[in-house]
Amino acid sequence: MSSTDDRHTISCLVENKAGVLARVAGLFSARGFNIDSLAVGTTENSEISRMTIVVCGGEEVLDQVRKQLDKLIDVVKVSDYRDVSHVERDLALIKVKTDKKNRSELMQICDIFRTKIIDVSPQSVIVEATGDEGKIEAFLELLEPFGVLEMSRTGVVAIARGEKILSVRES
Amino acid sequence: MELTGAQIVVECLKKEGVQYVFGIPGGCMLPIFDVLYDSPLQVVLNRHEQGSSHMADAYSRASGKVGVCMATSGPGATNLITGLASAYLDSSPMIAITAQVRTGAIGSDAFQEADAIGCTRSVTKHNYLVKDVCDLKRVIQESFYIATTGRPGPVHIDIPVDVLKAKTEFEWTEKINIRSYKPIAKPPIEQIKKAADLIKKAKKPLLYVGGGAILSGAGPVLNEFVNKTGIPVVWTLMANGAVPFDNPLNFGPLGMHGKYVSNMAVQKCDLLISCGARFDDRVTGNVSKFALNSKKIHFDIDPASIDKIIKVDAPVLGDLKMALEELMDLVPKGKLSSWQKELEELDKKHPLQFDLKDSKFVKPQYVIQKLHEITKGEAVVVTGVGQHQMFAMQYYPCKYPRQFVTSGGLGTMGYGFPAALGAKLAQADKNKPVICIEGDGSFQMTMSEMATAMRENIKVVVIVLNNYYLGMVRQWQEMFYQERYSGTALTAPSGNANKGQEADPGQIPYVPDFTKLAQAYGAKGIRVTKNEDVESALKDALKSDVLTVLEVIIDPKEKVFPMIPAGAGLDEIIVDMA
Ligand SMILES: Cc1ncc(C[n+]2csc(CCOP(=O)(O)OP(=O)(O)O)c2C)c(N)n1
Ligand SMILES: [Mg+2]
After folding, report:
1. Which of A9, A59, B169, B437 is the most buried (most CB within 10 A)?
2. Using an 8 Å Cβ cutoff, are B271 and B206 in contact?
3. Does any CB of chain B come closer than 8 Å to the CB of residue A23?
4. Is B418 in the pocket of ligand 1 (CB under 6 A)?
5. What is the pTM of this model?
6. Which domains are assigned to chain B?
7. What is the pLDDT of residues B153-210, one digit of tens each?
8. What is the Cα Rg of chain B in Å?
9. What is the distance of C-alpha B362 from the center of its chain?
10. Which ligand places an atom closest to the C-alpha of B474?
């Protein structure tokens, strides 16, 4: 049996209608599932939105989450990435405390992580970091000594590599 | 033809074959009730919207058709919630239609505004807020489709008053296509074959039947399957009547207050075949001690039920009736007489029993047993929630599906009486007796519906098993809380000064006097205080041509046995207190 703090990424295509997000969010609270992040956006099809949900728990939790999501009338398709080669990205905007003295050191770290400084003011900068969660966590650790003043993250989005396509058309 | 939203609602209900609407009007609801005024639909005016919701739900359960209830915005809508939740947990297909404040006022804290769909989201299979009159027909059609297909359940439609007044072209078409909702029906043949293999190998198979068997209409096929294979049957509260009580392979109800033999059968079997049951905690007791000697087959139409509580060896996803029809040809004719004998012996060792002799009170078990005898086990029985409900399950095993109506999943006190009225209206045979078995506590929650029954001339018999207490809770206090009867005496003076003082039916008058209360409504009231009088009182009540309340005074100390304490294994069953 897998440990309860396993993380699983689920992608879910839903009708782009009012109230769907409330249904999904309500499901998670009502059933006591732990979610790490939930990201929602439009897709190539304007009638359909895509939700990417990261849940914590063992395989059986993942199975229940998938089945319960599938039961929601407005959910069209659910899939996860167990044994599927895929890419995950999370985007973070991070406001870091920095001044003349340590700015170049900070810029070096940003370079190494291939992140971008998108705004500079006398006392701080804003860094845009993209990557899987592991990369962002590692980057944040190095920023810690400077002082992270504020952060805003999108949550993970994911997509399978290669031929595998998640769409409403019957596959 | 151009119709208003309200007219479209009523037209659609007519097209869907609806005969009754249970509800109460109000400001935003006026347009619909105005159309109902000269429609063929019959409006049943309740005294509380909770009553409307239970009536609609029970109408569904008793008939297999869809019950419809209606309420106005705000308080009307929130009063439906208990009924929706009750229907949801027991997978009852019903439709609730509420009115909402006008579209432009939504979110402004307008008079009688409540976020109705926000409130009902977690207690319905699906819900809709209809903001455009052009969507109304589609939404109503989808609602009926969703409510009745797959695992059934309640659907709620909330309609702002301006949408009810707006006009659009209306044309009825049957076609429905919801791309995101494709319920499965036909079970995969490989799954059925796997189940058949397990059945062939089993020496002590057992059918564990739940409410899904009733919902799928699998009763007759199931009975045929039982007779062909010789596999013994036990059933949950929701499946009373799925297999006729007089089938010798029917070993009765299992679970917390089920029979000794049924619970032991689960622990002893080597193959447990769950048919439309969901391993509810009132059935399994402690899951880690449940049916450990068996492989498991699980027939269910809801994929999320599979492996939710118990890991099973062979799931069969889809409609139970279809599955059993397929399975029938794949399993051999069986005679499992030694296993059946073993169970018969167990049943003889610990049958359901009670002692009439030294009771100065009427025995509730006796009342229901007599009722069963007089009505040949063929009356429609509807219950409240508590000890009386468990006695009804134990002593009124049914003959047919849809004959026993009770709130199982949610355990809603107050369900019984309005539900009995709904079940009565659902009977094709208007002379079929409908008996409501109530507790004094449960009945008081919705007894104002006596007015509804009288006004609509709905004749049922209410048997109030009056033990002066919230008896089931009192039983737990007696057994597990050192006899500290906190907040359970319905008539004894309460408060700290009276700690330890018990309500004594011989000494103090009950508030209210149920028989006088019935009379105040124009109903018939009968009180019984002696076992000798039970039979004639029952016969009187059954003959009565108005609503009749038969109050039976029983011992507050009466307890329901057998009992499996919460968290114990099924074999830790307590047969009685001695
Ligand atoms: C609406 C609601 N409130 C509280 C409960 C908890 N409860 C379960 S059984 C019971 C007592 C029922 O009393 P009564 O109807 O008199 O039946 P009895 O057990 O005495 O036969 C209570 C309070 C419940 N099931 N439903
Ligand atoms: Mg009582």
Report:
1. B437
2. yes
3. yes
4. no
5. 0.96
6. 2-169 (3.40.50.970), 189-349 (3.40.50.1220), 364-567 (3.40.50.970)
7. 999 999 999 999 999 999 998 889 999 999 988 999 999 999 999 999 999 999 999 9
8. 24
9. 26
10. 1
